[in-house]
Amino acid sequence: MKLSKSLANCRTIRRYLLIFTAVSLLLLPLSLVYLVWNEQLQKIRGFEDINQTRLPLIPEYAVQTLTPQEMLQVEQRMDQRRERLKDKCSAYGLDVLGHDSWHTPNTWEFLVNKKYHIIWCNVFKAASSSWMFNFNVLAGYSPSYLRKTKKILLNLARERYPRVTLDELREAQNDSLTFIIARNPFERLLSAYRDKMVFALPYSFHDKLGRSIVRNYRKKPSLVARAPNTKYPSFPEFVNWLLDQVKRGSFIDMHFVAATSFCTPCLIRFDMILKFESLTEDQLYLIEKTGLKRVIAPVWRNMGKGGRKTHELQQQFYAQLTRHEMLELYEYYKYDFELFDYDIQEYLQVARPDESSGSPTATKN
Fold first, then answer.
1. Distance CA 232, CA 213 (A)
2. What would be one Gene Ontology cellular-component term for the protein (predicted)?
3. For residue 83, with 0-12 CB atoms within 10 Å meaning exposed, 13-18 middle and 19 or more buried, which class applies?
């Protein structure tokens, strides 16, 4: 009896072993398939594990640098910009907390990279495409993936850079470098107008907004003489719409909003102020200071549409505005002009005379 029980137990154990072996043989190829699939998925999403940092390194021979003398010159320039910012913030009372957008710290568009200790406030139309690309690289996306993807780079970035509170931002600033890129506000506005109105993607939000502006402003007496036969708003129509938004206290689109309101540089510390006009040197200085010269490069992206030079475009479009319209526009962007050391005079020289319909005469303070 005992012998028969033992034989039965052995047969049971052998049966289980055979089942386990069969299942293992089935799972092994499935496991291999999963590993290969997962590796390919990581590559597709842009996480090619090229080195321990998970970032592809720029070859030494391709690294761009400044000479020690150039580094010193840019450093002095940065000191002067910070000093001017501090003085102007104090002069206009922008360093005092308040209840409007000029006096409330705004952390909405800051990207905080804790791993590489670099923080950027993204001012749209101020080399934003170039640095959004760089911050995505620092987030782990491969450059090859970023060049091929149809996804919006800002959306990709926000998957890796969650929005931060003021306390979180200030804590991160303790061991990080914070920077902003400034651009002449009128030049930046024109770039935004052309990108979001003239070249708006069909049926996009800005395409619909442009058509709405045309419907509401094209027949206005002060604008009808300057109205073109286009589906998108003329520059005067767009500017008058924007000025009305400001007067009503309405929300201002992130592409058109004043940088001073958007990044509140009088209430949040910035270690570096890069400027669009000297961006090649300023970027190299920043990259050197952050130790990222083998990871990111000062590559220009989204250089503008239509192949026209910036100065030529400024002359063409701002010459369509009256002096009164231009000075009203200046009033909204005044702090951007003052804090970052820009001048309106070259624009006033090309302005149209004010309409004879009794527009109030305005002068620059």
1. 8
2. Golgi membrane
3. exposed
- Please give the DSSP secondary-structure letter assigned to residue 56: P
Tell which residue, 315, 317, 345, 319, has the closest CA to residue 330: 345
Give the tokens for residue 41: 């998925």
**Angle at alpha carbon of residue 263, lines to 208 and 252, rounded to 5°:** 25
Structure tokens at 310: 């910036």
DSSP of 285-338, one letter per residue? HHHHHHT-TTT---------SSS--HHHHHHHHHTTSBHHHHHHHHHHHHHHHH
Alpha helices per DSSP H over 45-67 = none
Q: Which residues pair with 177 in a beta bridge?
A: 118
Asked if the model's pLDDT at residue 256 lies above 80, the reply is yes
Asked if the model's pLDDT at residue 180 lies above 70, the reply is yes
Q: Which residues pair with 113 in a beta bridge?
A: 118
Q: Do the Cβ atoms of 295 and 63 come closer than 8 Å?
A: no
Place of tokens 């997962």: 38
pLDDT digits 0-9 by tens, 297-340 = 887 665 554 445 678 888 899 999 999 999 999 999 999 999 99
What is the rounded distance in angstroms from the CA atom of residue 124 to the CA atom of residue 262?
10
Rg (CA), the chain: 28
Cβ-proximal residues to 139 (8 Å cutoff; 6+ apart), any chain: 113, 156, 157, 160, 161
The 10 Å CB-count burial string (b at 16+, else e) for 13-50 is eeeeeeeeeeeeeeeeeeeeeeeeeeeeeeeeebbbee
Among 255, 156, 135, which Cα is nearest to 205's?
255
